[in-house]
């Protein structure tokens, strides 16, 4: 059979056009669906994880490394037909993360905060931490103040978690540390001094301690009552304390002998400090802003933050938590009544309910974590345009349990929450697409006395009972990585 040359030519042309078209369609994300007989515009999946070296399975099949692209240091899988997929992310020695993922035509579905924990965890029991009851991290990395009660004597030591060495800086017989929510040990911004509040002989007492020399003295500044004094270190002026005695905000330079307190502002129920400004709750239920860097304190220098007063009881305690002048939370701990001021949403404080025990802003101020005895929720204070999309002013319940929740705080990425539930130290992700992955960092024989994070150390610390005695334990979480993704531990 003889084939004419023109026919061969046109066959090659047609084959060339089909091939080029197929390549172009493939390059632009189209795939041919044999079941539907048409080209389908595909989507993609991006996963950024900690740890970095992971295995990804889609519908039970491992994705080969050759099919993984890199996008902003994340694993990128293209050419996925629209539809639902079961995704599994794992790494040797770690827990597994999984979700049902919906891939849409022409869109990238992104998971930027996939967090795995070691399985099992490898807790490090720090030596010479016997009888510790509370821990207070220092601004200096690897240094923690540890409070202990031994033979009816309260002691405070400065403990270096890197060298595992310590030095006792304070002791007082027949004394107890005040409740941490009411007043806790506070380091000065330079980590040179500590403020130690105690209950001694039935009264509140405050001691200033030099961390280097261990010299200490009692602050004899206050009226004789057991109200909270809200004593804080000045954020900029070395060795200067700010405190509230009754309803007057005052300051004192602890290096001057005798102490010479200076009254600054009056009619104040509670306050918090941001930069060199004090944000106060007035006796009239209004939030005000005052400067702290002036030598001539005049009420005229104040700025009113909220316009409408809220109903408060001046005989109750209140806690003001400030991020900036646009984002402020207020808590009355007796009833747990919680207000939120987000200027981007409303011009005044908005009541968020009752039964709340604590609040904490994320480092970027875009989220507020708050919690009760059994619930953990997050309010989104700005529009969140990275997947998963969140609207400004929206609220999500992260965890709800029947057993009491304690030790609630942000994880390092501010997209996970760490908390204790009974004798389990847990973490939960904020991403609620499909369902929330909730993991267990460690299970203890008994409930912990305290859980706290050191984000600069990539470590979670726990005070737990070991053989009948309390000790400090460290858990590395999340996995520490460098800019290039290599393990730094």
Structure overview:
By secondary structure, the protein is mainly beta. Among the domains are: 1-41, no CATH class; 44-115, Carboxypeptidase-like, regulatory domain (Immunoglobulin-like, Sandwich), CATH 2.60.40.1120. Strands 16, 17, 18, 19 and 20 form a 5-stranded antiparallel beta sheet that branches. The longest helix is centred in the N-terminal third of the chain and has 23 residues, at 5-27. It is globular. The model is unreliable at 23-28 and 484-489 (pLDDT under 50).
Concise synopsis of the structure shown:
The chain has 489 residues and is mainly β. The strands form 11 sheets. Strands 16, 17, 18, 19 and 20 form a 5-stranded antiparallel sheet that branches. Strands 6-7-3-10 form a 4-stranded mixed sheet, with no helix packed on it. Strands 5-4-8-9 form a 4-stranded antiparallel sheet, with no helix packed on it.
Task: Give the arrangement of secondary structure elements.
Blueprint: H1 5-27, E1 30-33, E2 38-41, E3 43-50, E4 55-58, E5 61-62, E6 69-71, E7 74-80, E8 83-90, E9 97-103, E10 108-115, E11 124-125, E12 132-137, E13 143-150, E14 153-160, E15 165-173, E16 175-177, E17 186-187, E18 193-200, E19 203-210, E20 216-218, E21 232-233, E22 240-245, E23 248-253, E24 262-266, E25 268-274, E26 277-282, E27 287-291, E28 303-304, E29 319-324, E30 327-332, E31 337-342, E32 350-351, E33 358-361, E34 367-371, E35 375-380, E36 395-400, E37 405-410, E38 416-421, E39 424-429, E40 438-443, E41 450-454, E42 459-466, E43 469-476
Parallel strand pairs: 3-10
Antiparallel strand pairs: 1-2, 3-7, 4-5, 4-8, 6-7, 8-9, 11-43, 12-13, 13-14, 14-15, 16-18, 17-18, 18-19, 19-20, 21-22, 22-23, 23-24, 25-26, 26-27, 27-28, 29-30, 30-31, 31-32, 33-34, 34-35, 35-36, 37-38, 38-39, 39-40, 41-42, 42-43
